[in-house]
């Protein structure tokens, strides 16, 4: 007979209920059927009720004994029908409990540890009890989800969690192939040191099989002499094979011989991180205490004396994050540092070449008088608790403008600063363009609305009280307004300056209006020019979004107008200093909640059936609801005559298809002898194939394949794809079918090392596509943002791209006069011409079997005209500035 599906159990451990994952009937049969008719003795560590042990006793026909062990006093009250069941009350790691278990039996066929305990206890239990397992017996650990939880001594990257330990045992299985003279126990010495445990070489040598399933690990034991670990199976042509092939020496291999050194380095790095966290906490507390004193005396000597303490808080914070990154990803960090250093030097050179001379600015002032349209620009400037010297630089940058028809609308919300108040009053007395209103501080949005109420210009310009305007900023704005009189919103490029204002860095060159980027980041940032009537019509700034009030305003403006344009040029410099988000979001932690509300409200306005969550990679993530009823036709371009590749892709697709009904349409070469795997054969009724003889036929036949299906959503892919992540199809299909503004959705394409292959294409006038972010580190941001942003693009290669069938049919499909990839780029362009947008979704990721080579066309100057690129770049790969 079989055991019914085990009921879910939970145990309260250290004040937290940890659910242990139940074994299904199929799992029980798979794992334990070899023992069903054999004499068995079972040790079950963790007993929540009578029924599971009674069911076990019925399942095993020749059961000799089941010993259940639990530390809960209520376990002693359990009663069992089968006399073979015994119960021990106590902690399995305590000597007295160990003795009682040995008294029942000195060896066991099966042990099941319920897990869901502290990391050290789970590992100690395994090392203590696994030697009691008979040869060919199994040891199963449940509840390993707790390995990822802090209160159980775990975490996704925790180096000493049970999951981390059992993963190491996989290497133990392959000890014969290490190629270095290191024992198994020595390999695990960091665990022995961390948890003060002893490691027995013979015990480790007896491990013959390890299997992981959801929240569970199963380990099989065999005598060393009977283990099959060393058995090698070969397939292929018959040839000479050395009878005793030796493992090559790896003593010179850094990643083999220096493992212990790397482990020690990891431990030191972890300790450094801990020390830095503690130091940062102390400094944070000190800084908070000092802040009250600093604000009271910021114009006195005490301000200067305490300034190093405030600076140290930022320095320690950055040091901690850098140390952690070095510890976890040293090579990636080194490359990122080299790239950022090179970019900084390049940008310094670029800025020197593009600075306007005094003569050029003087010429601009003359040109301004010839403009047909010379609007009053109202600069919205809320002021609160700012160093007077920094603020004076902001004011001076406005006074230096070559276009002079402006006004500054200042809402001063910190009247306690008498020196600043007198300075503002002096400005207003000397220059009528300065409007100053002293107000109660009710938050950045309310203060901004006070400034807005003072404005009389046709357009407002947003400026932070610590930023610096380029002297030509307003001139370029008005010049653009004379060219496009109906525009409602203008934005420009930006960079940052350090606190002293001496160094410019962190430039961001922005693409044309890209609504989807706004779901990841406010790439528009500070200095933006908006028609005043539009801002007033939508009610100005909202106090409930303080900390993200600009972001919120821009999204709400975009809800009422599409007349949004970019002006190329670095018009303002965002100052990096304590208290500014330019120094990191941790400077204003409340801003995160406001940002989330901003995105949630925008999604609600759009009427999307979706919800929003914070995401470490892309800022925020939009999760679509109710897409499971969508039918999907996947078109696979089989480029390689490899059954293994095609089978692997198909298996991966169906493993990650979720609730979708997916039909596959494969375009293969006529000479390809495809041999479906056993898994694929189960799906053959959902798979259709068409063949072609020459590349010229490919596009037309792919179009015919599309017509054979009837899925709501088309997904174009290729067998160059090795794997897609679990949510890939959901992300692609959701955006394409649920957002009526999206024409196509591309995945983020990576190579096997998770280096970027493509994050969308920019397209030249010849129809050639050039990939964005090729060879970029995944988590790196620079002059053009980063590959992990949601990002609008002109086209994509058909690595893994979704298109709504209705959109495909509406523009007539693929142009069979063009080569397939170029036809697909053309398809993207034709769909975009209907007013829809294409974009790259960083949460839909695919890995290629290998990175493509020689696939990037020569840079054509017309690429700078692509709306989702920038005219200041002279190359997309590598990304380089024009000099």
Topology:
Elements: E1 9-13, E2 16-20, H1 25-32, E3 40-45, H2 50-59, E4 63-70, E5 85-89, H3 95-104, E6 108-113, H4 119-129, E7 133-141, H5 162-173, H6 184-187, H7 189-195, H8 201-205, E8 207-213, E9 216-221, H9 254-257, H10 259-297, H11 301-328, H12 330-354, H13 358-368, E10 377-383, H14 388-399, E11 406-412, H15 418-430, E12 434-438, H16 444-454, E13 459-462, E14 468-469, H17 473-483, E15 489-497, E16 504-508, E17 528-531, H18 532-537, H19 549-558, E18 564-575, H20 590-606, E19 610-615, E20 619-624, E21 631-637, H21 643-655, E22 661-669, H22 678-681, E23 687-692, H23 698-708, E24 713-718, E25 721-724, H24 728-738, E26 742-750, E27 756-758, E28 761-763, E29 769-771, E30 791-793, E31 800-804, H25 805-810, H26 820-832, E32 837-848, E33 873-876, E34 879-881
Parallel strand pairs: 3-4, 3-6, 4-5, 6-7, 10-11, 10-13, 11-12, 15-18, 21-22, 21-24, 22-23, 26-32
Antiparallel strand pairs: 1-2, 7-9, 8-9, 13-17, 14-18, 15-16, 15-17, 19-20, 24-31, 25-32, 26-27, 26-31, 28-29, 30-32, 33-34
Helix pairs in contact: 10-11, 11-12, 19-20
How would you explain this protein's 3D organization?
Residues 259-293 form a coiled coil. This is Glycosyltransferase. Residues 378-535 form the Glycosyltransferase 2-like domain. Helices cover 35% and strands 23% of the residues. It is an alpha/beta fold and 883 residues long. The chain has 4 domains: 9-226, 3-Layer(aba) Sandwich (Rossmann fold), CATH 3.40.50; 260-328; 358-607, Spore Coat Polysaccharide Biosynthesis Protein SpsA, Chain A (Alpha-Beta Complex), CATH 3.90.550; 623-881, Spore Coat Polysaccharide Biosynthesis Protein SpsA, Chain A. The strands form 7 sheets. Strands 21, 22, 23, 24, 25, 26, 27, 30, 31 and 32 form a 10-stranded mixed sheet that branches. The longest helix is centred in the first third of the chain and has 39 residues, at 259-297.
């Amino acid at each position: 007979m079989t055991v019914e599906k085990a009921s879910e159990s939970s145990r309260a451990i250290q004040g937290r209920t940890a659910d242990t994952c139940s074994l299904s009937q199929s799992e029980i049969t798979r794992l334990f059927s070899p023992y069903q008719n054999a004499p068995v003795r079972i040790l079950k560590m963790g007993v929540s009720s009578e029924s599971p042990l009674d069911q076990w006793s019925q399942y095993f026909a020749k059961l000799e004994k089941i010993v259940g062990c639990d530390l809960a006093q209520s376990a002693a009250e359990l009663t069992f029908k089968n006399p073979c069941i015994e119960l021990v009350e106590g902690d399995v790691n305590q000597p007295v409990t160990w003795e009682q278990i040995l008294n029942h039996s000195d060896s066991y066929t099966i042990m099941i540890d319920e897990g869901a305990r502290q990391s050290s206890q789970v590992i100690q239990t395994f090392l203590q009890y696994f030697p009691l397992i008979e040869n060919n017996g199994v040891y199963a650990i449940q509840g390993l989800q707790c390995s990822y939880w802090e209160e159980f001594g775990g975490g996704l990257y925790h180096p000493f969690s049970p999951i981390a330990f059992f993963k190491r045992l996989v290497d133990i299985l392959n000890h014969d192939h290490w190629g270095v003279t290191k024992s198994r126990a020595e390999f695990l010495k960091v665990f022995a040191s961390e948890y003060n445990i002893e490691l027995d070489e013979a015990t480790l040598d007896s491990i013959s099989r390890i299997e992981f399933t959801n929240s569970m690990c199963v380990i099989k034991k065999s005598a060393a002499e009977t283990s099959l670990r060393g058995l090698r199976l070969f397939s292929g042509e018959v040839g000479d094979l050395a009878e005793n092939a030796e493992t090559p020496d790896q003593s010179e291999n850094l990643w083999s011989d220096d493992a212990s050194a790397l482990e020690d380095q990891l431990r030191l790095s972890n300790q450094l991180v801990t020390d830095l966290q503690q130091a940062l906490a102390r400094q944070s507390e000190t800084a908070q205490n000092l802040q009250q004193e600093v604000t009271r005396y910021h114009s006195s000597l005490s301000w200067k004396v305490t300034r190093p303490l405030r600076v140290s808080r930022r320095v320690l914070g950055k040091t901690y994050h850098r140390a952690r990154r070095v510890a976890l990803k040293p090579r990636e960090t080194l490359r990122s540092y080299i790239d950022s250093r090179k970019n900084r030097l390049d940008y310094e050179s670029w800025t020197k070449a593009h600075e306007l001379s005094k003569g050029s600015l003087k010429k601009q002032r003359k040109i301004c008088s010839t403009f047909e349209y010379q609007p009053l620009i109202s600069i919205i400037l809320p002021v609160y608790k700012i160093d007077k010297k920094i603020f004076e630089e902001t004011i001076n940058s406005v006074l230096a403008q070559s276009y002079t028809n402006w006004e500054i609308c200042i809402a001063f919300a910190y009247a306690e600063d008498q020196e600043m108040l007198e300075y503002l009053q002096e400005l207003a007395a000397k220059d009528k363009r300065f409007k100053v209103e002293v107000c109660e501080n009710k938050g950045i949005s309310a203060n901004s609305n006070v400034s807005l109420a003072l404005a009389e210009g046709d357009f407002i310009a947003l400026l932070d009280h610590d930023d610096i305007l380029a002297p030509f900023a307003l001139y370029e704005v008005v010049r653009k307004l004379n060219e496009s009189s109906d525009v409602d919103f203008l934005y420009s490029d930006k960079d940052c300056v350090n606190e002293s204002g001496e160094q410019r860095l962190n430039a961001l060159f922005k693409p044309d209006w890209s609504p989807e980027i706004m779901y990841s980041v406010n790439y528009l940032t500070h200095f933006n020019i908006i028609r005043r009537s539009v801002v007033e019509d939508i009610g100005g700034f909202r106090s409930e979004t303080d900390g993200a009030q600009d972001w919120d305003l821009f999204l709400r403006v975009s809800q009422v107008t599409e007349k949004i344009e970019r002006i190329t040029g670095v018009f303002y410099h965002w100052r990096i200093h304590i208290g500014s988000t330019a120094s990191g979001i941790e400077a204003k932690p409340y801003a995160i909640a406001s940002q989330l509300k901003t995105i949630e409200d925008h999604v609600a306005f759009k009427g999307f059936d979706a919800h929003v969550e914070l995401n470490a990679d892309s800022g925020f993530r939009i999760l679509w609801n109710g897409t499971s009823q969508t039918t999907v036709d996947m078109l696979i371009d089989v480029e390689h005559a490899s059954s293994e590749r095609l089978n692997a892709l198909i298996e991966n697709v169906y493993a990650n298809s979720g609730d979708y009904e997916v039909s596959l349409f494969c375009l293969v070469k006529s000479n390809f002898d495809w041999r479906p795997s056993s898994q694929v054969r189960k799906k053959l009724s959902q798979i259709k194939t068409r063949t072609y003889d020459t590349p010229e036929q490919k596009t037309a036949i792919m179009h015919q394949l599309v017509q054979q299906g009837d899925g709501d959503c088309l997904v174009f892919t290729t067998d160059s794809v090795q794997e897609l992540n679990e949510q890939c199809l959901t992300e692609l299909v959701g955006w394409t079918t649920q957002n009526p503004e999206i024409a196509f959705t591309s995945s983020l394409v990576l190579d096997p090392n998770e280096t970027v292959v493509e994050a969308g294409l920019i397209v030249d006038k010849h129809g050639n596509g050039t990939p964005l972010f090729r060879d970029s580190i995944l988590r790196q941001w620079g002059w053009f943002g980063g590959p992990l942003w949601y990002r609008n693009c002109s086209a994509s290669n058909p690595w893994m791209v979704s298109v709504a069938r209705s959109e495909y049919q509406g523009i007539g499909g693929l142009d069979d006069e063009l080569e397939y990839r170029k036809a697909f780029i053309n398809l993207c362009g034709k769909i975009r011409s209907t007013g829809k947008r294409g974009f790259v979704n960083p949460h839909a990721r695919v890995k290629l079997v290998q990175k493509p080579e020689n696939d990037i066309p020569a840079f054509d100057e017309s690429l700078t005209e692509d709306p989702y690129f920038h005219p200041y770049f002279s190359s997309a790969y590598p990304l380089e500035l024009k000099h």
